[in-house]
């Protein structure tokens, strides 16, 4: 029983990265209709910026949780204004190629500056060690990542469901055609929504910095699993992105524990089963499929 709880905590911690990043990816796709292939590179960039700020300025992990998403938000706004906005009226393939090229550029830029070896990142002392709950010992950092990610997702949900701005963005995300028909100017929300989605990817990167090796390629495998997450949850579905993120984390953790050779394959088998049974995803709408 303790072993199952241990793997569950590990899975929820791993799923936390997917849930936060997939939330941003779902919002971007919902409002812009853009499949942002650079999302994994922005996740990597969040971890790298956190490591550089700690090394150069001595910025702590707690400050990085605030500063790095703000910097990534500004970066996302600049990218949307300079490049993405000009391709929105064209076929989705053009923006896919744009973000794919941006991902390659960011990865190569980090490799040229910091090499291929991992960057060091010091974990906060308060988050080291383990929490003891009865006979169960839980890694403190994994528990923190899970709780913090749930709070972030809950905060985003509250903003989306309880505020006027959030309701407009949610309508533009899940039903942009209906929102336009009701007089909502979806276009004015494109830039901040894109920046917000990139900021969430950067936040996931900061959370991963003390937990995973910080390398230029850390986002390459991450983005592949992230696409599986949003397909399982439903393209453009905010709730689906979060639920599927934690679900995939659990599948990955138990797969690595009991069948490590097939851990990654199980995720895509799950995706295939969901697509066969429900092409729009668990929480997606049929017109989105």
Fraction in helix: over 70%
Strand content: under 5%
How big is the Rg?
19 Å
Note the run of SSEs as H and E: HHHHEEHHHHHHH
Shape: globular
SS summary, helix count: 11
Given helix and strand content, the structural type is mainly alpha
- The largest beta-sheet arranges its strands as 1-2
Low-confidence stretches: none
Largest sheet: 2 strands, antiparallel
Mean pLDDT: 87
Would you report the number of β strands? 2
Distance between the termini: 39 Å
Task: Spell out the key features of this protein.
71% helix, mainly alpha, 289 residues, 11 helices, globular, two-stranded antiparallel ribbon
Q: What does this protein structure show overall?
A:
It is built from eleven helices and two strands, in the order ααααββααααααα. It has helices at residues 2-32, 39-57, 61-82, 92-114, 140-162, 164-174, 176-181, 190-208, 218-233, 238-258, 263-277, and strands at residues 130-133, 136-139. The chain has a two-stranded antiparallel ribbon. It is globular, with a radius of gyration of 19 Å.
């Amino acid at each position: 029983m303790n072993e199952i709880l241990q793997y569950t905590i590990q899975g929820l911690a791993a799923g936390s990265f997917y849930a936060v990043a997939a939330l941003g990816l779902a919002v971007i796709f919902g409002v812009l209709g853009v499949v942002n292939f650079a999302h994994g590179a922005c996740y990597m960039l969040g971890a790298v910026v956190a490591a550089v700020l700690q090394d150069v300025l001595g910025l702590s992990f707690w400050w990085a949780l605030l500063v790095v998403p703000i910097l990534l938000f500004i970066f996302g706004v600049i990218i949307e204004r300079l490049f993405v906005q000009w391709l929105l009226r064209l076929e989705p393939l053009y923006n896919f190629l744009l973000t794919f090229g941006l991902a390659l550029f960011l990865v190569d830029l980090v490799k040229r500056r910091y090499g291929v070896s991992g960057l060091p990142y010091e974990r906060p002392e308060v988050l080291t060690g383990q929490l003891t709950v009865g006979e169960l010992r839980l890694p403190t950092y994994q528990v923190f990542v899970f709780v913090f990610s749930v709070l972030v997702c809950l905060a985003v949900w509250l903003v989306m469901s309880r505020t006027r701005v959030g309701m407009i963005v949610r309508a533009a995300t899940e039903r942009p055609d209906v929102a336009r028909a009701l007089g909502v100017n979806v276009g004015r929300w494109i830039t901040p929504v894109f920046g917000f989605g990139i900021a969430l990817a950067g936040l996931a990167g900061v959370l991963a910095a003390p937990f995973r090796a910080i390398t230029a390629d850390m986002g390459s495998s991450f983005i592949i699993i992230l696409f599986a997450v949003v397909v399982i949850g439903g393209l453009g579905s905010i709730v689906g992105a979060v639920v599927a993120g934690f679900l995939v984390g659990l599948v990955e953790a138990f797969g690595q524990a009991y069948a490590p050779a097939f851990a990654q394959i199980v995720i895509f088998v799950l995706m295939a089963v969901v697509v066969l049974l429900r092409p729009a995803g668990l929480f997606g709408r049929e017109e989105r499929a």
